[in-house]
Amino acid sequence: MSKDLLIIAHSVVRSSSILVNGEKDFTSSEQDFKTFIKEAYRNYDLKYPKFFKMDSLCKLAVIGAEIVIENSDLAEISNDRIGIVLMNRASSLETDREHQHTIDDRENYFPSPATFVYTLANIMAGEIAIRHEFQGENMCFVLSEFDVDLMHQYVSNLFESGKIDACLCGWVDFDDSNYESVQYIVGENSSKNITFDVCTTKEIYNVK
What we know:
Elements (H helix, E strand, L loop, with lengths): L5 E9 L2 E4 L2 E5 L5 H11 L12 H15 L11 E7 L4 H11 L9 H4 L6 H10 L5 E5 L5 H13 L5 E10 L2 E10 L6 E2 L2 H8 L3
Parallel strand pairs: 4-5, 4-6
Antiparallel strand pairs: 1-2, 1-7, 1-8, 2-3, 6-7
Helix pairs in contact: 1-2, 2-5
């Protein structure tokens, strides 16, 4: 590779706790996701009312992204040069079920546009992009597991092709209260000197 790519910051959200750059940053005794994510929202003082209109997948994605973005110095990078590449397993299944419930009974047919808009997995990347005004490459893969090799290859190719100067990457999955977010910012400048490669990404993902 002609460019040395580094992981600028990373976050892990799972099991009612949040880690930032490998260190526990927030934890809750709440096992219920909806209660936990509200506590996290207040803890990080987001001040973003639209958060409460989102489905659970998007709330999880936005919280995980907020943390790494706040811990990354992206001020010198144009918004149209910052990409988002995410993966998950369940797609938007939770909201799909909710939407299906509203259309199952033809005698009691009440589909909600506010719910329907969240029936695509890539809406989580869209919500992050709207929140931070990122306008670069935007991609969401739905796979059976976090494919670290594919992520590394895809993001590296974006940098090599000159399309981006920074990228928010990761795995954000939510299904029936089973949730996990592992997100990180990749760029060319970082004081942490954490190399963006397959082994390092696997180490971040496997942090408990």
